[in-house]
Amino acid sequence: MTTISFPVYTASNIQEELEIAKREFLQANIVVKKSKKVFLPRVLERFAKEASIASDDLLKWVLENVDKKLHDSIRKCIDRKSSRKSSKIAEWLPYSSRFRYVLSKDLAEKPWWE
After folding, report:
1. How far, rounded to the nearest angstrom, does the alpha carbon of residue 60 sit from its chain's CA centroid?
2. Which residues contact 35 (CB under 8 A, 6 or more apart)?
């Protein structure tokens, strides 16, 4: 039997814990192919549309939130296509459920402030 562990978020450190989760999600779900295309998770497309974020700004945000190796790979892709828009560099990956966080049933049913 395989045991799956999930992170537990605490009220005192929620900001830091969510920041770490964001970075882990981006690292696990962004792919750069041959310095030509950046494949982003589809959920970021939805986020960008809902927040009215242009694709150039979304790529800048991604660059700020990934490690140096992935940052450099994305930067090479952008620099190679300097005459083209970011929308021509980025492609969307289908939704994936392989990376997710689950909340405890107890936390979902009973408000933490009670």
Report:
1. 13
2. 73, 76, 77, 80
Q: Where are the beta strands (DSSP E) in the chain?
A: 31-33, 37-41, 90-93
* Alpha carbons 33 and 87: distance in angstroms, whole number: 15
Per-residue pLDDT 10s for the chain (114 aa) are 566 666 778 888 889 999 999 999 999 999 999 888 999 999 999 999 999 999 889 999 999 999 999 999 999 988 886 655 666 889 999 876 665 555 555 555 665 555
**What percentage of the chain's residues is helix, strand, coil (to nearest 5)?**
55, 10, 35
Reduced to 3 states, what is the DSSP secondary structure of residue 95? coil
Q: What are the phi and psi torsion angles at 32 (to 5°)?
A: -115, 125
Domains in the chain: boundaries: 30-95
Distance of CA 42 to the CA centre of its chain: 10
